[in-house]
Amino acid sequence: KLRGSGGCNTYAGTYTTDRGAIEIGELAVTEMLCKGPAGVMDQETAFLDVLPTATRFRADGKTLQLLREDGTRVADFALITR
């Protein structure tokens, strides 16, 4: 399972992995409207639209990269410790 925040709304879904390949299933997203900062809703929509296009991943324990089949980066994530 995966879940997170797109900046305003939260999302949740499922994923499977196999030897560097990843498939992200359909995401359930809350439907809040945020007024700011400017552009946050457009940015969030773009992020949530592109996330399921990832077909490959790289992880090293501190970072996670999601990539398309051609190597184009979809998203980068970093581990935050508190």
Fold and architecture overview:
This protein has 82 residues and is mainly β. 13% of the residues lie in helices and 40% in strands. It contains one helix and eight strands. The chain has one helix at 40-50, and strands at residues 2-5, 10-13, 15-18, 21-24, 28-29, 56-59, 63-67, 73-78. The protein has a three-stranded antiparallel beta sheet, with no helix packed on it. The longest helix is centred in the middle third of the chain and has 11 residues, at 40-50.
Task: Please sum up the structure shown.
The chain is mainly beta.
Topology of this protein?
Blueprint: E1 2-5, E2 10-13, E3 15-18, E4 21-24, E5 28-29, H1 40-50, E6 56-59, E7 63-67, E8 73-78
Antiparallel strand pairs: 1-2, 2-5, 3-4, 6-7, 7-8
List its salient traits.
3-stranded antiparallel beta sheet; single chain; 82 residues; mainly beta; globular
Task: Compute the number of helices.
Answer: 1
> Biggest sheet, strands in spatial order?
1-2-5
Query: Helix and strand succession?
Result: EEEEEHEEE
Quaternary organisation: single chain
Number of distinct beta strands: 8
Q: Which residues sit in consecutive blocks of at least 5 with pLDDT less than 50?
A: none
How far is it from the N-terminal to the C-terminal residue, by CA? 23 Å
Shape, principal axes of CA atoms: globular
How much is the average pLDDT?
Answer: 93
Largest sheet: 3 strands, antiparallel
What is the beta-strand fraction?
35-45%
Fraction in helix: 10-25%
Cα-atom Rg, whole angstroms?
A: 13 Å
- Which class best fits the helix and strand makeup? mainly beta
